[in-house]
Amino acid sequence: MSDPIPSEISLGWAYIPPTLVSVLAGFLLAYQILALIHFAGLNRYFPNTAVAFLALWVLNSSLVAIVFFPP
């Protein structure tokens, strides 16, 4: 019987943990969202954009992990 929770993702000869995939996807999503925020001019509402980027990174990483790698 197959285990529904992947312990690692196989890409050819490399085995990648799902946590790394979710963190990288969260980083890319946070970068794109922050770029849209800057483009729309909404960055004036964030006193420190680095902290906003870290918060978006954690939020997106968590959402990706919950949606694609459910517990």
Structure description:
The protein is mainly alpha-helical and 71 residues long. It has one domain (17-68). Helix content is 61%, strand content 8%. It is built from 2 helices and 2 strands; from the N terminus they run ββαα. The protein has helices at residues 18-40, 49-68, and strands at residues 9-11, 14-16. The chain has a two-stranded antiparallel sheet. A hairpin with a 2-residue loop joins β1 (9-11) and β2. α1 (18-40) packs across α2 (49-68). The protein is elongated and about 45 Å long. The model has no long low-confidence stretch (mean pLDDT 88).
- Computed Rg: 15 Å
For the largest beta-sheet, the strand count, sense and barrel status come to:
2 strands, antiparallel
Number of domains: 1
Strand order of the largest sheet: 1-2
Percent in strands:
5-15%
- Category by helix and strand content: mainly alpha
The secondary-structure element order is: EEHH
| End-to-end CA span | 18 Å
Please count the beta strands (DSSP E, at least 2 residues each). Answer: 2
Poorly predicted residue ranges: none
Q: What's the shape?
A: elongated
- Proportion of helical residues: 55-70%
* Global mean pLDDT: 88
Question: What is the overall number of helices?
Answer: 2
